[in-house]
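MOLECULE: protein
FOLLOWS: sequence and fold
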Amino acid sequence: MKPSLPKKILASMSLLMLASALTAHPLKAQAQTMIKIDGSSTVFPITEAMSESFREKNPATKFTIGIAGTGGGFKKFCKGETDISDASRPILKKEMAECSKNGIYYMELPVAFDAVTLVVNPKNKFLSKITVEELKKLWEPAAQGVITTWDQVNPAWPATPIKLYGPGADSGTFDYFTEAINGKAKSSRTDFTTSEDDNVIVQAVSRDVNALGYLGFAYYSENSKKLKAAAIVAKDSKNAVLPSVKAVMDASYKPLARPLFIYVNAKANERPEVHAFVDYYLNNAEAVVKQVKYIPLSMKDYRHTMVNYKVKKTGTAFGGEAEVGVTIEELLKREPKN
């Protein structure tokens, strides 16, 4: 018998076994892909929900999603270490310069609204509303070591010690709050307990009757039995307004309503899995944003955002300067700066 026949049979058997294995386990034949995301803990619930929904139809795509804070996320993003950066404030000039130095071009995409929410312990019976002026008196740098009891903020309040909790210096929520209340980003007293994780603030305030903190609206909504929201009285108003979807949409929740963003690395966006995910994100943003209890943009604004994304409009509409009260429609019409 010629020796070539068994070799052919063995070869055929090997091919059949390989084909059978690939049929039985099709995912093993697919290349695994990874999308790296970091940044805002405020935007995290939206991006996490979006990634889970995306993976139901795209199981070969894996994600790493961090919560280093908006500033911490931009540090990684501008070094090229992440593909997408979650942000609860616009990119700043120093971050723009770092991205430029490293050849990182990006698309700035608004995805939702947030209401920065003032929260107190549910057993707090005296604080149901607070004015912007009282907030400034409480949080401005001059308050450090000086404003230590509640009656110093408002004589009608008790002479009990104040315990303050808030996000850290890398947080976009910290930047936005200090800009809106104290008039300058990062201008704040520093003698308060900080965390980049809003869940830590939730737990701290829920356990301390003398506590006050601020965090993203979704974290309050998810923990409304543990926390009480304080209504805000704006400078130009006599009305105390609680955070809500309606109050953000009708612009009555001032000055703590703000847009939320994702920033997409333009080079990373050339990878099919990143492009597919961002496209999915924008097409499903309204439903997912509602699902995680944030406030969606208008459909007109989502469509405009999608157009800007499809034409690969890079840069920021803010030019590295913080703005309070700007509309999404106005932002999307601006010519972005790199």
Remarks:
- The chain is about 40% helix and 20% strand.
